[in-house]
Amino acid sequence: MEPVYTSAARLFTLLFIFTAAAYIGVAASARDIVIVLRDRKLMLRVLLANILLVPVLGLALVSAIPLPGGVKAAIMLLAFAPGGMNALQFITKIKGELSFASAVLFVLFVVSLVLTPLAVSVFISGGIQAEIPYGRILLDLAWLIFLPLAAGLAVRTYSPFLGKTVSRPLNLISTAAFALAVVLSASVKKEAMRGIGPEGVVAMLALVIGSMIIGWLSGSRDTGRKRVLSNTTSCRNAALCLAIAMAVIPDRTAVLSILVFQLLTVPANMFFTLYHVIRMRRQKHPLSYPAD
After folding, report:
1. What's the topology of domain 4-282?
2. 32 neighbors 99 (Cβ within 8 angstroms)
């Protein structure tokens, strides 16, 4: 039987994704999202960072660090899987960039559905037949992300007052659900850290931090957009990677490695977000000292 805390962690994770997607719908207009998608130069930088530079980083890590086969497979899967939903928790805290963040996350998620299976066939050897459960994945996406997102956009379009009224509660619920999911799943992921060894943990941490740096450098001069790209680039699509790893990779360390990546991604992005929030508040309200 599945442990109670594991079931609870999954429940709060699903609640977080559902409410965060709904919040994006009521807070960001469809028109603004389309405008962002039409910015070709910006989208090119986003794609360059996520489908070229991060995979190059992954290749460098598996080449430079002696790692078990399962850990190497997990790194390559994650490197080719942009668009992780964990980014929702962080991008919704960046004022004035919600439409941009929503468009970027949507594009990256769609890209991962095509790019990640290709990585399986190219980088994972051993004659594995990649029977990826696309039907189940798309069904989950429909009710978990697209449905609340579409509902939120409809509410914002046809009842702006209602959208403004529910936006704050949705954001609070998603934040609370995310925090509970992290706490409840921490013990499972700590067990995973012991399962892949110190070299595997170091490699996963390097992938997280390296992806954050790549995202930051690929942004424009605007700090808000740099933060969005840093968050979205470092939050890889671990859920898709787990589904693929459990379906096609017999080495259990691959699944453990992906869990470790999730464990490391959350605090790294939390500290990054907290730093910028504190910095912005200090800029708005600088410390004053009494005159001598």
Report:
1. Na+/H+ antiporter like fold (1.20.1530)
2. yes
